[in-house]
Amino acid sequence: MRGWWRETAGLVLPSCCAGCGAARSLLCGACRAALGGAGAGPVAPAARWAGPAGLPPVFAAARYEGAARAVVLAHKERGALPLAGPLGGALAAAVAAARAGGAGAGELALVPVPSARRTLRARGHDPARRVALAASRRLRAAGEPARVAAVLRLRRQVADQAGLGARQRRENLAGALEVRPGGTRLVAGARIVVVDDVVTTGATLAEAARALRAAGLWADAAAVVAAPADSFTRA
């Protein structure tokens, strides 16, 4: 029984730091600091990307490189579920920066970007929602009223975004999201912040904001764990 537990734990618990590979640690001190959110702030599309229409103000906690990139991928693609805690802390810092940047007072509704069902089945979990839940717990512990409201869903199939350029991503996602029936009640009276783990061109966040507007809702901001330095720059 103990051997079975160890084999199973090995599938989800890294045998070394997920950020840098340091010996037997879920996340070493240096990599945990990289996700600490000390540099959280606004980001904007770099000049070479045409920012998608309707993109709300975006806030990120880290650059999508080094430890931050490694930890995001370990959680998302390899199912290292305990990493949701540190990633949630980073997302909470980005949400707090959004609040300070003008998201306004009142309860926060963190609206995660949904994944396709086939992607969820392949991964075995919902990374964006898991990280959002960890972020909401961190925010509440700090005295910020926050909750997760998974009100968005895909209304049609979309292609894998990997390898697509900015224009192709916008075309792939155009009209792909919608608010679930009854979703407007779940966010009534709250300040909405769309959340995801990474922003690339902004197409996904812009489509999420569009779907909310179509239902009579407004995203005050978007917050992510990390933003690639070559596609998004500090605003």
TrEMBL record:
Family matches, as InterPro entries: ComF/GntX_DNA_util-trans, PRTase-like, PRTase_dom
Top-level taxon of origin: Bacteria
Ranges where the Phosphoribosyltransferase domain occurs: 183-226
Gene3D superfamilies assigned: 3.40.50.2020
Family: Belongs to the ComF/GntX family.
The protein's name in its UniProt record: Phosphoribosyltransferase domain-containing protein
Organism, as annotated: Streptomyces polychromogenes
Lineage: Bacteria, Bacillati, Actinomycetota, Actinomycetes, Kitasatosporales
